[in-house]
């Protein structure tokens, strides 16, 4: 290891949000010329930590040290001025401007009278682009580039400043193999210039290929920092998953009833193809796969939000066509959506009104809303789900993430669905609420609900599911029963290794 | 104020600021001129606010559902001209339902474009503003429309009549406000309007057919416009083609003053009515204290900015915007 | 050819295609329907058309940059009227009596400064209070109009200065003074938006405000400058127009904001900001003026113009949506 002072240190960072301790005494240091991996599951606190570093959040405690000087990152601008550069996962580009203008956004070279010095701009940009070996030039409109190329523009932006540390957030998510090679060359180049690099990724293979050290977060706490050369995938996975939550494998085998939902050869454009499965009453079926594998899109199609291009959906053995969420609800399907704030809740409405929204047409006393039964429904699900709120009048936007999620679940339980779909039911919520929701899902199955759980967290899927469907690029790769599944064969299935449509339940 | 923190006072001001402002205005004007609180004066103000008020009730629905309606002014001109024209052609009893039907068709067209085709409501209603204006001019041939026998018709009752000692325009406004207020606050439909305006996506994910809700809101708005046209026609028994011109923005001002957010999801009929009355009483009060009529526009301007500013300042917890 | 260039080209070109279509239609239809014997595409007629395009066209250039920046300005009509009053009234102020025709540049300067000040006020409020520009300018539309009426009641404000009239009616290289102003403004604003740091930053702010802020672009001053520019242009429009007409009614400029926004949207500028072209806006105002003139030429009532323009605006919006639909598998929200 290089024996020099770190370019960047985050020391004992604490950050709490209402109801959640997002970061609890987290420390991280980056040496010059080091690639430091930051790993952890979704919701482990990686992005919160990076937002603290980037000046978007202010920490409640702890300090940031750049080049051995403590600093306060008051704004993204300040972070940039101190040489901390972010390559964001979600792109922050202006599509109507050229590549060059995006790269030099906010610092366009000037001539007299406020004119842009285009010659300097383009020649500087082209020099950078040449280093990146990309197939477009400085004058190209960013909006006409592929996502991967837009990513390269983001990376090019990092090369314009005198960076001390560069943070890559899932940079390879949308890159082809050839583009990855270029990216890794760029990282090597930055290393050689003594820049410190924080590399956030889920992909073990990359982590072990390019990083020097690995820091693992879990539930907002620091699980350890190890030298990459002295560890292996299994040890890192162990750190990431931990055993703090009770995430033992599901072994319960209660009564399984009739088929509630049957899907045959369902396709929707390029999103997913030839999907067939069935869900029995009293059973939890987990959908596991990488982001973009098509799981959410299947749920949306079942819920009437997308039109399938082919295939059949059968409810209780009868073929149905579901053209809208209203029809899905009428047929007894409920969907707890992936995006709680955007799709699940109306943040400016109170708790009661959110819970009763899907059935508001049926809660009538004469022509009016029957507020008495509304409150009764709210009370019932507040008690059952242990929703912590001062009262039904509280605006949902003021609740913690966990309680918000319980409102969404309560809203759909109140519909007494025959098929309940939960998409990422525990994303971004605290550990306590997480295990409550896991228990609830098992409980619902025991009561005879047919439940589908979509999750990107392997322990969660393993914990709650009776069967697991592994998806890769819009196709079902394999269906596992809880007896035959293990972490290894599951990972293989969702990475595209293994037999397609291998169905072991028959 | 013992027992109240600064935040609580701020919160009350943010939520009930419009009522506080209203009370302050009334007190201020009544001190400045004793005639201000005279029942006749108050009645006069409400009466002259009725047309604006009736239109604002409908626009409240549209704004809460998260859209805009800039076409109400020219639509009101259309209703007025049509009903006056038909009055002499087919008689008042048939003219009124015919005019309502035609106006509702226009509302349905806008509702279809915005609700079902999901086109931007600002541009659609801007286009309809122009189109309906053109329609009215084409219909009337650009001429003023007058009822031939002004003395011999009962039609004026909508604008000039009294019932139970109350001017009919006020009666219409109050009844409509009560009816629509209940519709918005107490029925499943009203709840859905708030849901669609609060978060269109989440409303759809909750099984609400948002297109139908938006469509209905524009129908309600058109119904209110037709009613306003009826009052206008009955008041003067004759009209120019441009009688409603510019009203769309005054109506919007009243709705915003009432605290409805242009983002949708908030506002009430009651507060819109207060917003309308504030505009009416400012106009009246300024005249009574000796300022000229047009000073009300300047005062309205200042009040709108202050009202919206204080509202968002309370929400973000700081007075000045964080824009660098 | 890069991906997206063709559709961009089609969109940018659409307005000019529309103009050509209008020219053909009115020329042909004019042969059969026209009340006059003159051809529609008569040179004098076209020159007049350009001149008549100027007042709205000049303001539309300002509206384009405001909308590219992600804002909107509903107060331009009132600003236009108020500046016109300042122009005509200041020509008669006793303190300038000794200047002779030297009063003209002074009056012009006063009117233009008024426009800049009114725009700056809008911009400052948007910047400092964080209230949406739609509401701020809706308010000032009422407020500025109130000032117009407070100035002279419902009476017109009139003053004819023959030197001014001569200047305004002059033709140079065949084009009227107003046309020259429009062309000059178009070129200047094009230059501003495409060649200066301010212009490029304005695009960036409208396109992706978060990215612009994170890159250290100061959003507030840029917005304020743009509001000052549109105020200036509304005043310039008034100066050009009223130098010739010499009389302003307090209702003048009403609905201008709507006409101008229509022209800008026809020209393809996005309401959400970040995208728009000055040249296409020029096409947009030209198309509207052509339509007005053309419909009059073929003997349609001038009233029909409003109807046709309104419907065209909605049709454009509809077509734009159809072109941008992604396909059947799209999420139905």
Automatic annotation (TrEMBL), chain A:
UniProt keywords, alphabetically: ATP-binding, Cell membrane, Membrane, Nucleotide-binding, Repeat, Sugar transport, Translocase, Transport
Protein name: Sugar ABC transporter ATP-binding protein
Similarity-based family: Belongs to the ABC transporter superfamily.
SUPFAM superfamilies reported for this sequence: P-loop containing nucleoside triphosphate hydrolases
Domain of life, source organism: Bacteria
MF terms (GO), sorted A to Z: ATP binding
InterPro entries in the cross-refs: AAA+_ATPase (IPR003593), ABC_carbohydrate_import_ATPase (IPR050107), ABC_transporter-like_ATP-bd (IPR003439), ABC_transporter-like_CS (IPR017871), P-loop_NTPase (IPR027417)
SMART domains named among the record's database cross-references: AAA
Gene3D superfamilies (UniProt xref): P-loop containing nucleotide triphosphate hydrolases
Residues of the ABC transporter domain: 8-244, 254-498
Automatic annotation (TrEMBL), chain B:
Alphabetic keyword roster: Cell inner membrane, Cell membrane, Membrane, Transmembrane, Transmembrane helix, Transport
Cellular localisation: Cell membrane
Source taxon at top rank: Bacteria
Membrane topology designation: Multi-pass membrane protein
InterPro entries per UniProt: ABC_transp_permease
TM annotation in the entry: 12-32, 44-64, 94-116, 122-142, 163-185, 213-231, 251-282, 294-314
Name of one Pfam family that matches: BPD_transp_2
Protein name: ABC transporter permease
UniProtKB/TrEMBL annotation, chain C:
Membrane is among the record's keywords: yes
Annotated InterPro entries: ABC_transp_permease
Main location: membrane
CDD domains, sorted: TM_PBP1_transp_AraH_like (cd06579)
Top-rank lineage group of the source organism: Bacteria
Identification of the protein by name: ABC transporter permease
Keywords, in A-Z order: Cell membrane, Membrane, Transmembrane, Transmembrane helix
Location(s), subcellular: Cell membrane
Membrane topology: Multi-pass membrane protein
Residues spanning the membrane: 12-33, 53-72, 79-100, 106-127, 134-152, 172-193, 224-243, 258-291, 303-319
Pfam families given in the database record: BPD_transp_2 (PF02653)
């Amino acid at each position: 290891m290089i024996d020099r002072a770190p370019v960047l240190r985050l020391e004992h960072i604490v950050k709490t949000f209402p109801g959640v301790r997002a970061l609890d005494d987290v420390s991280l240091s980056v040496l010059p010329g080091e690639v430091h991996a930051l790993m952890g599951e979704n919701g482990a606190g990686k992005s919160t930590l990076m937002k603290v570093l980037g000046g978007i959040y202010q920490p409640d405690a702890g300090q940031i040290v750049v080049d051995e000087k403590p600093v306060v990152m008051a704004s993204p601008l300040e972070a940039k001025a101190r040489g901390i550069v972010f390559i964001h996962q979600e792109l922050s580009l202006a599509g109507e401007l050229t590549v060059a203008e995006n790269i030099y956004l906010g610092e366009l070279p000037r001539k007299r009278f406020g004119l842009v010095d285009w010659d300097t701009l383009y020649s500087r940009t082209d020099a950078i682009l040449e280093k990146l070996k990309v197939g477009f030039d400085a004058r190209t409109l960013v909006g006409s580039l592929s996502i991967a190329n837009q990513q390269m523009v983001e990376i090019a932006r990092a090369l314009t400043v005198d960076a001390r540390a560069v943070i890559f957030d899932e940079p390879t998510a949308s890159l082809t193999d050839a583009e990855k090679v270029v990216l890794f060359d760029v990282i090597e180049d930055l290393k050689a210039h003594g820049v410190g690099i924080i590399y956030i990724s889920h992909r073990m293979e990359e982590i072990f290929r390019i990083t020097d050290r690995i820091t693992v977060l879990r539930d907002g706490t620091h699980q350890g920092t190890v030298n990459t050369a002295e560890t292996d995938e299994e040890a890192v996975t162990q750190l990431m998953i931990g055993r703090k939550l009770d995430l033992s494998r599901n072994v319960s085998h209660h009564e399984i009833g009739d088929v509630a939902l049957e899907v045959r050869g369902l396709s929707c454009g390029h999103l997913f193809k030839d999907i067939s499965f069935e869900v029995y009453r009293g059973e939890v079926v987990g959908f596991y796969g990488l982001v973009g594998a098509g799981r959410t899109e299947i749920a949306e199609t079942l819920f009437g939000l997308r039109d399938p291009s082919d295939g059949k959906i059968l409810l209780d053995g009868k073929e149905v066509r579901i053209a809208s969420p209203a029809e899905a609800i009428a047929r007894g399907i409920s969907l707890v959506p992936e995006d709680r704030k955007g799709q699940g809740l109306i943040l400016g409405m109170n708790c009661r009104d959110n819970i009763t929204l899907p059935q508001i047409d049926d809660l009538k006393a004469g022509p009016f809303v029957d507020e008495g039964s509304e409150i009764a429904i709210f009370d019932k699900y507040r008690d059952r789900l242990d929703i912590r709120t001062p009262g039904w009048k509280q605006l949902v936007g003021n609740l913690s993430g966990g309680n918000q999620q319980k409102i969404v679940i309560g809203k759909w339980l109140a519909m007494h669905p025959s098929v309940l779909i939960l998409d990422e039911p525990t994303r971004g919520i605290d550990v306590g609420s997480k295990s409550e929701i896991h228990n609830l899902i098992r409980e619902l199955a025991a009561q005879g609900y047919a439940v589908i759980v979509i999750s990107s967290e392997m322990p969660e899927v393993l914990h709650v599911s009776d069967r697991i469907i592994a998806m890769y690029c819009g196709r079902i790769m394999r269906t596992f029963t809880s007896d035959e599944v293990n972490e290894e064969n599951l990972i293989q299935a969702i990475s595209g290794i293994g037999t397609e449509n291998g169905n072991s339940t028959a | 104020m013992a027992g109240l923190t600064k935040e609580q006072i701020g919160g009350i001001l943010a939520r009930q600021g419009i009522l506080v402002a209203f009370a302050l205005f009334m007190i201020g004007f009544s001190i400045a001129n004793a005639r201000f609180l005279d029942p006749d004066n108050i009645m006069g103000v409400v009466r002259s606010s009725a047309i604006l008020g009736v239109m604002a009730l409908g626009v409240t629905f549209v704004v809460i559902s998260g859209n805009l309606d800039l076409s109400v002014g020219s639509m009101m001109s259309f209703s007025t001209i049509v009903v006056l024209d038909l009055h002499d052609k087919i008689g008042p009893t048939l003219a009124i339902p015919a005019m309502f039907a035609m106006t509702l068709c226009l509302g349905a067209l806008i509702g279809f474009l915005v609700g079902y085709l999901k086109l931007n409501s600002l541009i659609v209603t801007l286009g309809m503003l122009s189109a309906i204006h053109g329609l009215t001019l084409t219909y009337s041939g650009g001429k003023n429309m007058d009822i031939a026998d002004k003395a011999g018709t009962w039609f004026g009752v909508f604008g000039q009549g009294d019932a139970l000692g109350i001017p009919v325009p006020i009666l219409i406004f109050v009844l409509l406000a009560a009816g629509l207020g209940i519709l918005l606050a107490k029925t499943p439909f009203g709840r859905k309007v708030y849901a669609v305006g609060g978060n269109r996506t989440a409303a759809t994910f909750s099984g609400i057919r948002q297109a139908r809700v938006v469509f209905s809101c524009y129908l309600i708005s058109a119904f209110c416009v037709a009613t306003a046209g009826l009052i206008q026609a009955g008041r003067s028994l004759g009209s120019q083609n441009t009688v409603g011109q510019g009203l769309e923005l005054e109506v919007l001002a009243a709705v915003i003053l009432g605290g409805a957010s242009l983002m949708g999801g908030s506002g009430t009929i009651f507060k819109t009515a207060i917003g309308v009355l504030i505009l009416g009483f400012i106009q009246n009060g300024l005249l009574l204290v000796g300022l000229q009529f047009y000073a009300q526009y300047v005062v309205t301007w200042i009040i709108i900015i202050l009202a919206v500013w204080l509202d968002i300042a309370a929400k973000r917890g700081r007075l000045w915007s964080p824009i660098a | 050819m890069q991906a997206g260039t063709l559709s961009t080209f089609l969109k940018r070109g659409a307005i000019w295609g529309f103009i050509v279509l209008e020219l053909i239609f009115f020329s042909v239809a004019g042969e059969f329907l026209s009340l006059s014997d003159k051809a529609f595409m008569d040179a004098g007629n076209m020159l007049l058309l350009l001149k008549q395009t100027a007042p709205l066209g000049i303001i539309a250039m300002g509206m384009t940059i405001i909308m590219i920046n992600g804002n909107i300005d509903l107060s331009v009509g009132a600003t236009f009227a108020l500046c016109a009053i300042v122009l005509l009234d200041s020509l008669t102020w006793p303190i300038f009596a000794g200047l002779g025709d030297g009063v003209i540049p002074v009056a012009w300067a006063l009117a233009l400064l008024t426009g800049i000040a009114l725009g700056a006020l809008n911009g400052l409020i948007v910047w400092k209070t964080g209230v949406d520009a739609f509401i701020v300018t809706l308010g000032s539309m009422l407020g500025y109009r109130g000032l117009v009426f407070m100035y002279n009641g419902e009476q017109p404000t009139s003053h004819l200065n023959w030197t001014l009239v001569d200047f305004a009616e002059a033709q140079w290289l065949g084009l009227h003074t107003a046309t020259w102003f429009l062309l000059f403004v178009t070129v200047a604003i094009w230059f501003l938006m495409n060649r200066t740091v301010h212009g490029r930053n304005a695009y960036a702010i409208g396109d992706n405000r978060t990215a612009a802020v994170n890159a250290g672009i100061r959003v507030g001053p840029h917005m304020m400058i743009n509001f000052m520019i549109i105020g200036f242009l509304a005043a310039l429009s008034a100066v050009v127009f009223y130098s010739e007409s010499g009389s302003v009614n307090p209702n003048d400029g009403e609905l201008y904001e709507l006409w101008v926004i229509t022209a800008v949207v026809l020209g393809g500028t996005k309401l959400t900001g970040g995208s728009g072209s000055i040249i296409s806006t020029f096409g947009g105002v030209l198309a509207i003026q052509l339509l007005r003139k053309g419909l009059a030429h073929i003997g349609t009532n001038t009233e029909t113009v409003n109807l046709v323009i309104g419907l065209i605006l909605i049709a454009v919006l509809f077509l734009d949506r159809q072109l941008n639909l992604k396909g059947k598998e799209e999420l139905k929200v």
